[in-house]
């Protein structure tokens, strides 16, 4: 038998009354004043037993009966009359009523009115409900609210529904204050009823804005009120708690109250693409596919998007397969482009291997893309499997985090550095070669970046590490390279990615302490650059500019950005609609295509001119910095690669289009 | 003999449980209520009770009231040239009550149960104990006021089972308790309250309302009048009158000006809407903590003088949708409960079947530093004993060091409900040396033991060495030290207190003086006439004639102020 029952001295029961009786009997012998410990043990058993009854939901018949018929007003015979007899004599209930509540009325016939003003202020109660309005505005003729409360929960709920239907789920937000004010005017029992109705109202409508839900939760103390489970049943209470949790987890930013788009709206790009294929508008289908294979893939990772297509009888597998292939082709185009570029560059012997930094960023972008664009259904299937290994579980946990894409990014980076730098450059050129700066920086960047990626959210306890890392970094740089100037230039390469990284992972409202290292690096780059002649100054300024831009972006956008990055998967950043995606592509890819064009055209000119004055070493360093700066925007990584393959692929596309047109227009085929 | 004392903000009572029932003990004037007021006359003699309160408007700088509000604080109250702490003034009141009880019972009284607001904190409870000690009373138990009321009510009703809510709005404090009575067990389910809300606040609201009507007054005059005791008395009178009349006239004689405004009940209601709103929160919290629906309550019991106000009753009626019970005199309920508790303590045979269990109305804990997602956040509150836990209770919490080589742990003991440590009320601190070890390896177990009197005992154990530290709390300033208590005892002994048998004469003389100030013209002449005649008689020392004259004098004064006794 459970020791608690033993302490109470009864057999297990779900009769509340029996438990109480047993407790009372025991308590007479273990009074709290005499034996505190024994009392605590007894009390523990008693609380447990009552909670146990509660859990089993067994309402003892006696209690139910007691609730059904309230106890008689006349008290039973008193064994012990503690009060003066004359006082007791005076307390006939009827008299009490006259004296207590209707005193004013009884005395001089004047009617005490409930102040109608708060009701009149709440104009929305009148909204479309003249009958309610008339009822509330009419003076209540008695103070006695026992029989007629000024507001009844049903009409409150009716009003809420009217407002919701008219103004949408967010329309209720504006009325939260009025609602809580009105709640205060209700008797407690009516409040309880209204509370119950409100909980069901919230549970029935998933779209209600978090602000509304949270305001009510605060008003009623949901989350601390254990009566909820009794009132609503355990299942509903749990649903409510889950709802509150998600409401609290949603950032309450300006756009947090936007209603979630319906799936048709949200995945309309995907939907249109699939419909294009279905209705045979193949040109549009390919255009959409070519311009945004990633968006299509991203959308297809969501089960609801797949359900949507299934519901319309569209083949999402086809779209997924084709967009995957298109993307692979585009990647191949990128590789070809890089090869071409390298080939072209190798022709220009004056250019000392600018491929390395380009390849670094290219590889990073590639890794990032690969991860993000892995076929959604496959990944989902993988996630859905039970995972036993620690690593697999970790990856599953990271599913919606930001760490995994970045790990992919830096790992690819590391591979390229290892492949290119370590084996060939390092071995061949040793450490006195000029592009060691960039190489050293890149190598340094890798451990730092990995460290950051792995431990960054560990928060303040890690902040002391940043100064040593910064110092060690400087020492490594100074030792590896031959002077402060080189260090500064190396740092200039380092700053933008670090700044960008910071920008991404910075939690909203954090202190500035983590900016110390990049600030120091950036500043020293600028200073060293300034002291080293005009061209180095340009480099320094470039780095400084990158830093300032990053900082400004950080200051202005960080809370929202980082909240999104930390709370949401990457894909949230990308537009989900066809037009939005098109605008995105046109804008960013256009901008970066412009830069790429400037870069591609201007770089040789600039480098040649620069090399003539400052020598090829400086020219190369400038290129490194420019490349670092260029690759420093997160979208740039995407877009930069995109620009390259877009140019190539568009060309191929046009050719293929013509070829296929020609192919399709063949008379033999037409006949078939 | 164990007595029960209700030491109130405005009035105090004393009761005793004899022959199976509670008897409230009248004071020298024959009243059950002794105002908690102390005054010092020009000879340096101390007046306590009604005579002192009568001097409030005539000698405001020599008179103190409502000092219960300053219990447990460092505030010093000036009476004439002497300075007093709230504990000392309370001790004078308790002393007077003790004398009354001794005169009534005919035996010396040394032990008492004293009621305190449930929301009184540790310091305030200690101060109450100190006050009793200064008055020569040993406190057998500090009883929470709503619990006392519930005890009185529960035993008076003696239904088989009932759940009821005690709404206790006193002069200076507001307490709500949800209680359950079954099989002789009076169980407090939850308590909540507001220590800074009471009848006095309603008087202040009335004062502000009155001053707002006096548009002719300049700002300096307004300031002066606002703080004058004269206006306070008028407002108090008006508050009481509003209980019976729909409209009252407040008249203030200020030098040669007379301000006269009529205040209606609805004006008053509007003026104290905010106060009424503040009453709701503790009620909701008590019900929530007790896990009881408002509809499941069998009764709502109103306790405390301020619940006589129709606005409050109306608000309670509206809130609960039912008529509250008021059949026990709201002023006396707590004293009755305290007397019953005294009898319980003394194991009175008539109460053999009754057991009272109480709860702790607030959370107790310490300030800690917490690691959340790898980030260290300081100044968090870690409650060891949650509010509304049944007392006595003993809870242990384990805490560790946060930095490497940390050599000491400072326990900052606090009371309250805020998650931010320093937002809670500081009770004291305790420093403990620990062995310097890496962070997190040095552990201490902190045991809080809270007894039925609401006093806290702390025991800290170093889990590594097993070394124990008892209650060496460095009190945070506002509790009297042992030396201070001794000094205060000497100071109070040196005070001359007016003998008890002259109380009534003193009261009448002071009341006449106050009425003289309040009135003008022929009423003044009448009062001077009565007063001179009475004082002449007092000089004659003829006991029989004085008694007769006293009766006549009292009747005459009653005719002037409708027998109003504050």
What is the percent of helical residues of chain A? over 70%
Distance between the first and last residues' Cα of chain A: 85 Å
- Mind telling me the C-alpha Rg of chain B? 26 Å
Beta-strand portion of chain B reads 25-35%
State the end-to-end distance of chain B. Answer: 30 Å
- According to DSSP, the number of beta strands of chain A is 0
Mean pLDDT of chain A: 57
Give your account of this protein's structure.
Chain A has 672 residues and is mostly helical. In chain A, 73% of the residues lie in helices and 0% in strands. In chain A, helix 26 packs parallel to helix 28 (484-505). In chain B, helix 2 (86-105) crosses helix 3 and helix 13 (503-518) packs antiparallel against helix 14 (522-540). The longest helix of chain B has 20 residues, at 86-105. The mean pLDDT of chain B is 83. Chain B starts with a strand and ends in a 5-residue tail after the last helix. The chains are: A mainly alpha (672), B alpha+beta (566). The interface between A and B is large, with 68 and 75 residues.
Brief descriptors of the model:
heterodimer; A: 672 residues; mainly alpha; 33 helices; disordered C terminus; B: 566 residues; alpha+beta; six-stranded mixed beta sheet
SSE inventory with pairings:
The complex is a heterodimer of chains A (672) and B (566).
Chain A: H1 3-8, H2 16-27, H3 36-56, H4 61-68, H5 85-89, H6 93-100, H7 103-108, H8 117-121, H9 130-137, H10 153-167, H11 176-184, H12 188-204, H13 210-220, H14 227-232, H15 234-249, H16 263-266, H17 268-278, H18 282-291, H19 293-300, H20 303-311, H21 316-347, H22 355-373, H23 376-384, H24 390-397, H25 403-429, H26 436-455, H27 463-480, H28 484-505, H29 516-530, H30 533-567, H31 578-630, H32 634-664, H33 667-671
Helix pairs in contact in A: 2-3, 10-12, 12-15, 13-15, 17-18, 19-21, 21-22, 21-32, 22-25, 22-32, 25-26, 26-27, 26-28, 27-29, 28-29, 28-30, 28-31, 29-30, 30-31, 31-32
Chain B: E1 2-7, E2 11-18, E3 21-24, E4 34-35, E5 37-40, E6 45-48, H1 50-58, E7 63-65, E8 76-79, E9 82-85, H2 86-105, E10 111-116, H3 122-134, E11 138-144, H4 145-157, E12 161-169, E13 174-182, E14 185-194, H5 199-213, H6 219-226, H7 229-242, E15 247-254, E16 257-264, H8 265-271, H9 273-290, E17 299-303, H10 310-320, H11 333-345, E18 355-360, E19 364-372, E20 375-385, E21 389-391, E22 393-400, E23 408-415, E24 425-433, E25 443-450, E26 456-462, E27 468-469, E28 474-475, H12 482-494, E29 496-497, H13 503-518, H14 522-540, H15 543-561
Parallel strand pairs in B: 1-10, 6-29, 10-11, 12-17, 14-18
Antiparallel strand pairs in B: 1-2, 2-3, 2-4, 5-6, 5-7, 8-9, 12-13, 13-14, 15-16, 18-21, 19-20, 19-23, 22-25, 23-24, 24-28, 25-26, 26-27
């Amino acid at each position: 038998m459970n020791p608690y029952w033993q302490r109470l001295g009864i057999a297990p029961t779900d009769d509340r009354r029996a438990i109480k009786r047993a407790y009372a009997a025991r308590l007479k012998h273990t009074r709290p004043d005499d034996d505190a410990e024994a009392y605590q043990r007894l009390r523990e058993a008693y609380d447990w037993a009552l909670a146990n009854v509660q859990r089993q939901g067994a309402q003892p018949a006696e209690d139910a009966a007691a609730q059904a018929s309230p106890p008689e007003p006349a008290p039973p015979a008193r064994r012990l009359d503690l009060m003066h007899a004359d006082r007791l004599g005076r307390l006939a209930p009827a008299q009490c009523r006259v004296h207590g509540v209707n005193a004013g009325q009884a005395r001089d016939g004047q009617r005490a009115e409930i102040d109608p003003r708060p009701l009149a202020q709440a104009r929305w109660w009148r909204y479309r409900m003249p009958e309610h309005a008339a009822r509330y505005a009419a003076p209540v003729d008695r103070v006695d609210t026992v029989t007629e409360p000024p507001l009844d929960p049903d009409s409150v709920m009716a009003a809420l529904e009217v407002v919701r239907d008219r103004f949408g789920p967010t329309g209720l937000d504006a009325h939260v204050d009025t609602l809580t004010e009105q709640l205060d005017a209700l008797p407690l029992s009516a409040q309880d009823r209204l509370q119950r109705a409100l909980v069901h109202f919230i549970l029935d409508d998933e779209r209600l804005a978090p602000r509304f839900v949270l305001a009510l939760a605060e008003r009623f103390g949901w989350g601390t009120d254990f009566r909820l489970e009794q009132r609503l049943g355990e299942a509903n209470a749990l649903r409510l708690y889950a709802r509150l949790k998600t409401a609290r987890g949603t950032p309450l930013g300006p756009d947090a109250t936007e209603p979630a788009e319906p799936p048709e709206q949200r995945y309309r790009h995907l939907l249109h693409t699939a419909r294009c294929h279905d209705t045979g508008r193949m040109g549009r289908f390919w255009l959409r596919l070519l311009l945004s294979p990633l968006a299509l893939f991203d959308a297809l990772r969501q089960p609801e998007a797949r359900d949507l297509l299934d519901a319309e009888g569209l083949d999402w597998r086809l779209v997924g397969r084709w967009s995957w292939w298109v993307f692979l082709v585009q990647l191949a185009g990128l590789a070809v482009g890089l090869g071409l570029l390298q080939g072209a560059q190798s022709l220009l012997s004056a250019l000392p291997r600018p491929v390395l930094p380009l390849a670094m960023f290219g590889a990073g972008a590639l890794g990032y893309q690969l991860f993000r664009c892995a076929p959604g259904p496959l990944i989902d299937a993988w996630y859905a499997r039970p995972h036993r290994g620690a690593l697999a579980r970790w990856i599953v946990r990271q599913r919606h985090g930001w760490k995994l894409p970045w790990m992919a990014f830096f790992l690819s980076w590391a591979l390229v550095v290892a492949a290119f730098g370590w084996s060939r450059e390092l071995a061949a050129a040793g450490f006195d070669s000029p592009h060691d700066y960039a190489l050293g920086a890149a190598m340094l960047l890798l451990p730092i970046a990995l460290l950051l990626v792995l431990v960054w959210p560990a928060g303040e306890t890690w902040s002391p590490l940043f100064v040593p890392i910064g110092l060690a970094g400087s020492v490594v740089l100074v030792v590896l390279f031959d002077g402060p100037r080189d260090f500064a230039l190396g740092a200039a390469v380092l700053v933008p990615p670090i700044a960008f990284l910071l920008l991404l992972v910075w939690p909203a409202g954090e202190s500035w302490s983590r900016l110390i290292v990049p600030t120091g690096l950036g500043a020293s780059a600028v200073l060293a650059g300034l002291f080293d002649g005009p061209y180095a100054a340009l480099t320094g300024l470039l780095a400084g500019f990158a830093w300032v831009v990053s900082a400004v972006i950080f200051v202005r956008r960080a809370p929202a950005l980082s909240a999104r990055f930390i709370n949401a998967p990457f894909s949230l950043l990308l537009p989900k609609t066809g037009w939005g995606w098109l605008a995105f592509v046109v804008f960013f890819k256009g901008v970066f295509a412009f830069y790429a064009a400037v870069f591609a055209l201007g770089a040789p000119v600039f480098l040649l001119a620069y090399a003539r004055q400052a020598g090829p070493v400086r020219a190369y360093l400038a290129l490194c910095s420019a490349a670092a700066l260029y690759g420093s925007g997160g979208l740039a990584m995407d877009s930069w690669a995109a620009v390259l393959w877009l140019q190539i692929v568009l060309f191929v596309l046009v050719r293929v289009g013509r070829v296929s047109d020609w192919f399709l227009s063949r008379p033999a085929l037409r006949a078939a | 003999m164990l007595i029960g004392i209700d030491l109130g903000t405005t009035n105090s009572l004393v009761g005793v449980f004899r022959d199976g029932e509670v008897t409230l003990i009248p004071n020298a004037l024959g009243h059950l209520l002794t105002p908690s007021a102390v005054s010092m006359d020009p000879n340096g003699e101390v007046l306590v009770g009604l005579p002192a309160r009568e001097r409030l408007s005539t000698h405001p700088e020599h008179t103190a009231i409502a000092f219960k509000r300053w219990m447990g604080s460092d505030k010093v109250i000036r009476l004439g040239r002497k300075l007093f702490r709230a504990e000392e003034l309370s001790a004078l009141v308790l002393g007077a009550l003790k004398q009354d009880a001794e005169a009534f019972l005919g035996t010396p009284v040394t032990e008492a149960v004293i009621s305190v607001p449930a929301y009184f904190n540790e310091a305030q409870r200690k101060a109450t104990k100190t006050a009793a000690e200064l008055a020569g009373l040993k406190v057998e138990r500090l009883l929470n006021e709503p619990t006392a009321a519930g005890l009185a009510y529960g035993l008076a009703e003696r239904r088989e089972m009932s759940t009821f809510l005690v709404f206790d709005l006193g002069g200076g404090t507001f307490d709500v308790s949800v209680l359950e009575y079954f099989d002789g067990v009076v169980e407090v389910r939850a308590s909540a309250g507001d220590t800074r809300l009471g009848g006095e606040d309603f008087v202040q609201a009335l004062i502000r309302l009155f001053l707002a009507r006096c548009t002719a007054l300049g700002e300096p005059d307004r300031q002066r009048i606002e703080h004058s005791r004269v206006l306070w008395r008028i407002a108090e009178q008006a508050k009481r009158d509003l209980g019976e009349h729909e409209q009252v006239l407040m008249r203030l004689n200020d030098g040669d000006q007379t301000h006269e405004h009529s205040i209606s009940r609805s004006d008053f209601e509007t003026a104290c809407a905010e106060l009424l709103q503040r009453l709701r929160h503790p009620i909701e919290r008590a019900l929530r903590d007790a896990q009881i629906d408002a509809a499941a309550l069998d009764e709502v019991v109103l306790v405390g003088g301020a619940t006589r106000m129709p606005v409050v009753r109306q608000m309670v009626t509206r809130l609960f949708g039912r008529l509250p019970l008021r059949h026990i005199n709201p002023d006396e309920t707590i004293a009755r409960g305290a007397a019953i508790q005294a009898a319980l303590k003394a194991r009175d045979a008539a109460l053999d079947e009754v057991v009272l269990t109480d709860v702790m109305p607030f959370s107790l804990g310490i300030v800690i530093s917490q690691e959340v997602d790898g980030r260290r956040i300081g100044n968090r509150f870690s409650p060891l004993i949650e509010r509304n836990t049944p007392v006595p209770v003993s809870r242990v919490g384990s805490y560790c060091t946060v930095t490497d080589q940390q050599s000491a742990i400072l326990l900052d003991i606090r009371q309250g409900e805020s998650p931010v440590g320093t937002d809670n009320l500081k009770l004291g601190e305790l420093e403990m040396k620990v062995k310097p070890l890496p962070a997190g390896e040095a552990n201490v177990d902190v045991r809080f033991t809270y007894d039925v009197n609401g006093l806290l005992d702390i025991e800290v154990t170093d889990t590594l060495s097993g070394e124990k530290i008892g209650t060496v709390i460095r009190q945070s300033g506002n509790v009297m030290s042992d030396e201070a208590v001794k000094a205060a005892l000497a100071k109070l002994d040196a005070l001359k207190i007016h003998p008890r048998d002259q109380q009534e004469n003193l009261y009448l003389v002071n009341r006449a003086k106050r009425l003289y100030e309040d009135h003008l013209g022929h009423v003044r002449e009448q009062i001077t006439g009565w007063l001179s005649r009475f004082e002449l008689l007092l000089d004659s020392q003829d006991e029989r004639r004085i008694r007769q004259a006293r009766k006549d004098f009292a009747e005459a004064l009653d005719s002037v102020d409708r027998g109003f006794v504050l």
